[in-house]
Design goal:
Number of helices: 13
Bound molecules: 5'-deoxyadenosine, iron/sulfur cluster
CATH superfamily of the largest domain: Methylthiotransferase, N-terminal domain
CATH topology of the largest domain: Rossmann fold
Helix content: 25-40%
Amino acid sequence: MMGQQGINHVLAVHIRTYGCQMNVRDSEAIGALLVRQGYRLTEREDEADVILINTCSVRGKAEDKAVGKLRLMGVEKRERPHLIVGAVGCMVQRIGREALKRIDGLDFAVGTHRLSALPAVIEAIRAGRGPIVDVGEEETEPEALAGHLSGQVLAFVNILLGCDRHCAYCIVPTVRGREWSRPAESIMREIGALAGDGVKEVTLLGQSVMSYGRANVVYPEAHVSRHGFMEALPRLLEEVSGVPGIQRVRFTSGHPSGCTEELARAMGELKGVCDHLHLPVQSGSDRILKAMRRGYTAETYLAAVARLRASVPSLALTSDVIVGFPGETEADFEQTRLLMDAAGFDNAYIFKYSPREGTPAASMVDDVTPDEKMRRNHVLLEDQDRRGLDLNRVLVGKVVEVLTEGPSLRNQDRWAGRTTTSKITIFEPRAAIKAGDTVKVLVERVGPQTLYGSVVGEDGI
Ligand code: 5AD
Ligand code: SF4
């Protein structure tokens, strides 16, 4: 199968990922698929035979970055003529053949819907049958992409593909297609295998994950679970949190319309379901929220937050905000600042609006100047740093439970992990520890997004 270079040379593949957790998940699935076919993965670009760039389309800048990287790789091919350079993911799904025009030296482009075709595509390129573009109609079976790399502590699991929301600014429904929920049984099979492989934490993924089970049937029959849940996501959370070995369960991203009483109860009652939620708000102005077609107001957003907090008092909330959406005035922007305070976000990702071709917002006038977008971006980041610091200060002197992920990137003597509230925690280990251990950490100092401390014993000393 491995072609001309013979059996002694195992082809090395380097995968670089841009974009969201779904792309991270796709990259891992591709990696697992290629490893099964006899390739090996490498962290190093310079020793790779195949370089795969997994692209994102969400903002113009995300595409520019990936295109820049791919062009560099194309140039690199002059020195390394056998190097194969390919693009996969959302941008490819969006622009198709255009990718070959934009990127000199590109060998192949495979869209999000056709990832399972990758091994065959790479083989064909090696046999000299390139370049190849595949953004075909026949969609990859999700089961073909259920593979994971082994030896991980955390794992992402797709539960809902596509998105039916059609927010005015968003390209995702165009590239990722219609919503489709995976049957619970197949998700549970994947998670059972992960638990068997030592995974401790799973994050259930969907662009709008609370729509799980809405567009198609995921449980063959109506049923009231042991905890009395009838809705699909709470039922799934109950099942996943019951898998032996799985200590933590997360799900992302949320939408206020999905924050039902039952979901709030599931988050509060189910041991293992983390007290953290990523609940993008995008704006705090009702006028802008309407233009964005978000389907809620500032008031109903805050009501959803209140419902969750009533059931999960320790809840940490993170969010996404867009500044400079068409027509956003200073007054609208101030509404956003107020809402972010009222919601009490632990962390927030701020994005400058960027028009995406073919979306409804692209036909509106992009009337907030780049400088003003930049200013609003800075203001929100400063607000968020202050808020994050205030929220984290309360934790100084307290003991938090941390699932360790490995040595800290900056200083290898220290370790890093996350709390159940998803706060990055850097700590000095007391004795030998390994990734996947849960330790108690006494918080000694905090930053806006990070906790620092040292490990204490079970008794907190
Ligand atoms: N411009 C700027 N930000 C965007 N996002 C999505 N589309 C756009 C766009 N056209 C942001 C949203 C979303 C996050 C993943 O990216 O905040 O939640
Ligand atoms: Fe993820 Fe959206 Fe970017 Fe695709 S376009 S990688 S779905 S953020």
